[in-house]
Amino acid sequence: MKIEAMPAEKAARAGGRPGSEALQRRLAVAFAGALVVVTTLSLTVFETARRALASSRLVAHAHEVLQVMNGVEGTLVTAQSAVRGFVITGDEVYLRDRDSALLSLESGVQRLRDLTADNDSQRRRWQALRDRLDERVALLDRLVVIRQTEGAGRAREFLRSVYPPPPPAKTGRIRAITGEMAREEELQLAGRMREEELASAFAVASGVVLAVLFALMFTLGYLAIRRRVAQTFGLNAALLSRTEEAEAANRELEGFSYSVSHDLRSPLRAIDGFSRMLTEDYGERLDDEGRRRLAVVREGSQRMGRLIDDLLEFSRLGKKPLACSAIDMTALAGEVYRELRTADPEGSPAFDLAPLPKGWGDAAMLRQVLANLLSNALKYVRKDRAPRIEVRGWAEDGRNVYCVKDDGIGFDMAHYDKLFGVFQRLHSAEFPGTGVGLAIVQRIVTRHGGKVWAESKPDEGSSFYFSLPQAAMSGFTDPPAARGGRR
After folding, report:
1. Is 154 helix (H, G, I), strand (E, B) or coil?
2. 145-191 pLDDT, tens per residue?
3. Beta carbons of 79 and 98 less than 8 angstroms apart
4. What is the DSSP letter of 320?
5. DSSP three-state, residue 182
6. Contact between residue 188 and residue 62 where contact means Cβ atoms under 8 Å apart
7. Model pTM score
């Protein structure tokens, strides 16, 4: 039956037409160009901000240099005034003021040296200032000594000889040096403030451009996303419609399969029953070939019945709800093995069951998983040695892993992709089976949120693994041997 395409699907296919592709290419180019411009402007703004920050630091540096120079001049004047006061009065209090001023003067001079260390011309001026200040401090110290040893008159004479009116040239040299240093710092300050103003203006302009570009990109992105969302809603509506159609078709198919399977059972039972009656009532009149042919008919009808049963069981697994509970997997595996051995007591396989991690799931379904895996291990045995079956389990990465290992005939991993398919068999009719058992195992484990896989080599046995998510079960702990991961 041909199904017409939904309007949304047609619209989705229209998205792949040349006009739409050209529009998408133009949008991509526009976004790429805008991204390049935005990136360039962002880097420029960053560099401008960095320079503005550096300029602001230099402006602060210039202000500090001027402030320190003013402080040096002020403390020098304070020291000179204190010495004059001592010369005139002889009061020792002025000497303490002098000492305090000289300490502040030395600290200011050292700070000025640090601030001007990166400027050669200012460093030379600082050295000249240092020399003049040392001379001035030496004169002040000598004046104090003269006052203390020779008296006030001699000290005043020395003072007048050192500082005759008008102001001495030495004082003028100190002021000239500090003036030169101040003028250079003021020139640098003016230039740096201009740079800072330009950087700020550029940063503002760049920010405006970036805001416009971001608004443009946001608008274009919004329009593109809105269009894509509309297409997605249309596709989702079409997908939902198709999903509902598929579910309805699956329900019809399941009902049809059940009806067909149910209707096939009566003819099969009739074939098997009449073949058995022929064998019982007329077996003596038939030769060996006739009896063999009746046996083949009965075996075929019985195998067909088992196949129908397995097929129905496989289809019911998808509909049957899970009745989950905590499961003692060790006890369940032992119980399943004993049931299988009771049904088929031939042979004497060695069975090694280690403590298994506790499980969480539908006990009946997980029983079916273990039954299918263990029955395969009992079925595909080598004839040249006694079979050995091992069942192990461990915790690993938030899941419990269980393994059923045998030393039977194994299989070629080249055919692994067929292993869990319905009606897929990797061995000859020598071994009974319908090819549905491993498909049932996979469906059950998948419904429990786990995985199933296998490893094997021909004539070396097989290992079948399945995992189940771990569930937090209060008061339900694993045996010590089941803790820890191994693979």
Report:
1. helix
2. 888 888 888 888 877 776 655 444 444 667 777 777 777 777 777 77
3. yes
4. S
5. helix
6. yes
7. 0.44
The H-or-E segment that residue 390 falls in is strand 388-396
Pairwise CA distance, residues 344 & 379, whole Å: 10
Residue type, 446: T
Contact yes or no for 350/388 (Cβ under 8 A): yes
SS3 72: helix
Bridge partners, 326 (sequence order): 360
User: Which CATH number among 3.30.300.20, 3.10.450.50, 3.30.1330.100, 3.30.565.10 corresponds to the domain 323-482?
Assistant: 3.30.565.10
What pLDDT, in 10s, does the model give residues 57-111?
Answer: 777 777 888 888 888 888 888 888 888 888 888 888 888 888 898 898 889 889 8
Say how far apart CA 332 and CA 353 lie, in whole Å: 11
| CA gap 4, 21 in Å, rounded | 25
Listed in sequence order, the residues at least 6 apart from 161 whose beta carbon sits closer than 8 Å to its beta carbon are: none
SS (HEC) of 193-233: HHHHHHHHHHHHHHHHHHHHHHHHHHHHHHHHHHHHHHHHH
DSSP letter (8 states) at residue 480? G
Structure tokens at 166: 């008008």
Q: Could you give the 3-state DSSP secondary structure of residue 406?
A: strand
- Which one-letter amino acid corresponds to residue 255? G
Rounded to whole angstroms, how far apart are CA atoms 390 and 463?
A: 9
Backbone angles phi, psi at 456, to 5 degrees: -165, 160
Nearest CA to 83 out of 148, 131, 130, 26 is that of 148
Sign for the pseudo-dihedral over CA of 271, 275, 276, 282: positive
d(CA 397, CA 451): 13
CA dist., res. 234 & res. 238, Å (int): 6
